[in-house]
TrEMBL record:
Superkingdom of origin: Bacteria
Native organism taxonomy: Bacteria, Bacillati, Actinomycetota, Actinomycetes, Geodermatophilales
Name of the protein described by the UniProt record: FxsA cytoplasmic membrane protein
One Pfam family per UniProt: FxsA
Transmembrane annotation, as ranges: 19-37
Leader peptide range in chain numbering: none
Keywords linked to the UniProt accession: Membrane, Transmembrane, Transmembrane helix
Gene Ontology CC, one term: membrane
Length: 174
């Protein structure tokens, strides 16, 4: 007896479906660009260009990866938070993977992740994407705008006043 069971579609199900769709469309775009480049410069040169970009990816991954791991090791020895160095290591790993895999679109995105000069762009895009998915309470700093309508009177020495006598009026701006 065969039964079919489908998983309930929640937010995680939609995300994985979108991810599969994006990966499929990306692979299709890679094939289309590869065929266009092969028809433009010839198959032999296209294969040679693919091998060259993969070799460049390995070289950049080795150089930038060594730097990133050295910085992470130094931060660990100094008992400092990894911060941006950990994000850079992740972007370098992603960029190296994209450069090593065949395809010219992935090579372009991998190059953006591997080069220190251009690494800020993918970092910004990923940070914005993650921040947009977070609940409001978990997003960055709160900005407060003052809307004082009348002057506040207080003691002559406000630094000696108790906590109940100091009031700051305002509203939280989204």
């Amino acid at each position: 007896m065969a039964t079919s069971w489908t998983a309930p579609r929640g937010p995680a199900g939609r995300t994985s479906s979108r991810l599969r769709t994006a990966i499929g469309l990306g692979a299709l775009a890679e094939v289309v660009v590869y065929v266009l480049v092969a028809s433009w410069i010839g198959l032999g040169w296209t294969i040679l260009a693919t091998l060259a970009t993969s070799a460049l990816g390995w070289a950049l991954l080795a150089r930038q990866g060594t730097k990133a791991l050295g910085e992470l090791r130094q931060r660990a020895e100094e008992h400092r938070a990894p911060g941006r160095a950990l994000g850079d290591a992740g972007l370098i790993a992603l960029g190296g993977l994209l450069m090593v895999l065949p395809g010219f679109i992935g090579d372009l995105f991998g190059l953006l992740c591997l080069l220190p000069v251009t690494r800020g762009l993918p970092r910004l895009l990923i940070a914005r994407s993650v921040a947009s998915r977070l609940p409001d309470a978990m997003r960055g700093p709160v900005r407060v705008r003052s809307v004082r309508t009348e002057p506040v009177t207080g003691p002559a020495e406000p630094y000696r006043a108790g906590p109940a006598t100091r009031v700051i009026e305002g509203e939280v701006a989204p």
